[in-house]
Amino acid sequence: xxxxxxxxxAIMAMTDLAAQGPNKVxxxxxxxxxxxxxxxxxxxxxxxxxxxxxxxxxxxxxxGYSLSxxxxxxxxxxxxxxxxxxxxxxxxxxxxxxxxxxHKTQCLTHSLWDALEAHIEDFLAKVSVADVVEQNIAIPPSxxxxxx
Length: 148
Known about the structure:
By secondary structure, this protein is mainly α. Helices cover 49% and strands 5% of the residues.
């Protein structure tokens, strides 16, 4: 699975921001320090998050960022989309005439990876930033049974 630092760090930063409380203005340097993320990298991510309408920027000495709406209404898939991240489990892309195998035909497992991508996207659409902060992420029963 390919989810780069952009997606992971954007979710971490948004979760950190939400954990500070509703309407709280937080500086990126505070988030960078708590989450061990480069300040320059956070500045790039928050520019995209602001353009997507997920955060508001506040200028001045006590400036920083705040969530633009309640954390319960910000799904993780929106954060991933905002930072131009894709969940890809195979190398096939419509722009390339060849598929992940380097041939014109799809690999035997292509539909498996497509289905898994759909499940991941569906999961991320159902989990909010508030769910992550509150550790309220449901594990499907089939996974709990397999772990025992």
